[in-house]
């Protein structure tokens, strides 16, 4: 599929290891080198600031979306091509999702998990068919991916829905996977009804 804008979710902290910062810089540079626009959370700190600065340094266009309450804390990145200030976190997430053709999560915390799993859930429900990928730096998401496999085994996640999560340790590989992504919506309701019918027949 054609990827013109990628939304990146990541930490407002740089994390413990230098490799996290380096991965954010590499991702920003890779996005810019492909002529893809970056959409992100609009902050100047942590991995958020690193990915934005790297994309700008590579000649890429960067759009930040930030709630007024966070911008008031003086962490907004004022050197972006476009800084969109919104009223709430809900509005921020919706605007970022709307602007992008695909989504990548770098290492991060609660906010990163929330943002990524929201767009992933929307894909599960057939609300969009955009690719969702994890940049698994230093196996940061390894245990999460293993847990999701466990959720499949316990029949809380349908295997084709688990397969919607792309992952790679290299930003170039992940973006290649996103460009090649071609998946029709999978009807969650049909799967749930089939599972219930199967249980009832046992």
Structure description:
This protein has helices at residues 18-33, 46-57, 68-71, 89-99, 110-124, 142-153, 159-162, 171-180, 188-200, and strands spanning 5-9, 37-40, 62-67, 82-86, 102-105, 132-135, 165-168. The protein is of the alpha/beta class and 202 residues long. A seven-stranded parallel sheet has the order 4-3-2-1-5-6-7, sandwiched between helices. The longest helix is centred in the N-terminal third of the chain and has 16 residues, at 18-33. It is globular and about 50 Å long. The model has no long low-confidence stretch (mean pLDDT 93).
Secondary-structure map:
Blueprint: E1 5-9, H1 18-33, E2 37-40, H2 46-57, E3 62-67, H3 68-71, E4 82-86, H4 89-99, E5 102-105, H5 110-124, E6 132-135, H6 142-153, H7 159-162, E7 165-168, H8 171-180, H9 188-200
Parallel strand pairs: 1-2, 1-5, 2-3, 3-4, 5-6, 6-7
Helix pairs in contact: 1-2
Radius of gyration: 17 Å
Query: What is the number of strand segments?
Result: 7
Mean pLDDT: 93
Oligomeric nature of the chains: single chain
Low-confidence stretches at least 5 residues in length (pLDDT < 50)?
none
Order of helices and strands: EHEHEHEHEHEHHEHH
Q: What fraction strand? A: 15-25%
Q: Work out the helicity level.
A: 40-55%
Number of helices: 9
Largest sheet: 7 strands, parallel
Structural class: alpha/beta
**Sheet with most strands: strand arrangement:** 4-3-2-1-5-6-7
